[in-house]
Write a structure and sequence with these properties.
Low-confidence stretches: 103-112
Number of helices: 9
Mean pLDDT: 84
Strand order of the largest sheet: 1-5-6-2
Radius of gyration: 28 Å
Helix content: 25-40%
Number of strands: 12
Distance between the termini: 80 Å
């Protein structure tokens, strides 16, 4: 098994340490090895990165549980899963933290690798990437502009979520790695809720009374949906398989929330029709209020 790191040893804590002990140890060691307090010390910088990774995993209950199971597997103790497909520990961590790595083009064969003082000073960098919901769902080519003036073409994975980090190897400072922090921008009418997508759908009074086919926006484009006659505001309808996810098998559903909207401005013809309707309709929503 490659690259395994014992996060308990890195943080200097025992396996059954509680959340408070994990936090206290991380803060103490992070101050000790912070790059700003150890300028030019590559070992301190690497230790600081390892501390951050250890804390990010052990401070999260779900991630800690998965890590503990992997650790048992590495120690050849009883484990709940077979991790042979993730024998490289770095791959396991990237999957656990929902990180995706984008590798830049390989160096040409006629350009031999050399070591230089610049390579010794390489440092990782971070940048935020704001992505519209539709592009976050679809993935694909994205142009990223960095603070140092560079522009990169990156093939982004599908199903990105806010808080996800994507690593671009060798694109940081002096040859370090660049981490893109994903921020998915709000959509005008779609909202991601776990694996589901919630859609607020306004309809007219006549559509609510009569029902029929309504065009509904989805991440896959507009689709036709049948609205039952007599539908009320607040009713929720479901479009199966139109939710969020990286793969079709991972997608949830789209929940369509109905709101009957009353028009504020009417034409003379519309006023006349509503007057006729009021004069002929038998429905009385206040019947139970009469004594």
């Amino acid at each position: 098994m490659q690259n395994f790191r014992d996060y308990y040893e890195i943080l200097g804590i025992v396996e059954d340490a509680d959340a408070q002990a994990i936090k206290q140890s991380y803060r103490r060691l992070a101050r000790q090895f912070h790059p700003d307090l150890n300028p030019g010390d590559r070992d301190a910088e690497e230790r600081f990165k390892s501390l951050g990774e250890a804390y990010e995993i052990l401070s999260d209950t779900s991630r800690k549980t998965q890590y503990d199971d992997y650790r048992r597997y590495w120690l050849r103790q009883k484990s709940e899963a077979d991790y042979r497909d993730l024998d490289d520990f770095n791959r396991f961590v990237d999957q656990l933290l929902n990180r995706h790595e984008v590798t830049p083009p390989a160096q040409a064969p006629d350009q031999p690798k050399t070591s230089s003082p610049r390579e010794m000073r390489r440092r990782d960098a971070e940048a935020s990437l704001h992505v519209p919901l539709e592009r976050a769902f679809q993935g694909g080519p994205e142009r990223v502009r960095l603070g140092d003036g560079r522009a990169l073409e990156v093939d982004m994975p599908p199903g990105m979520v806010t808080g996800q980090r994507i690593r671009l190897r060798g694109q940081g400072l002096d040859g370090g790695d660049l981490y893109l922090n994903i921020v998915v921008e709000p959509h005008r009418c779609l909202r991601v809720q776990g694996r589901d997508v919630v859609c607020h759908l306004p309809i007219t009074p006549s559509e609510a009374v009569l029902g029929g086919q309504i065009t509904v926006p989805t991440l896959d484009g507009p689709v036709q949906m049948t609205i039952p006659a007599g539908i009320q505001s607040g009713r929720k309808l479901r479009l199966a398989g139109k939710g969020y996810g990286r793969l079709p098998t991972e997608r949830g559903d789209q929940i369509v929330e109905i709101e009957v909207v009353i028009p504020k401005l009417l034409s003379d013809q519309e006023v006349e029709l509503y007057e006729k309707l009021r004069a002929t309709e038998s429905f009385s929503p206040r019947a139970n209020l009469m004594y």
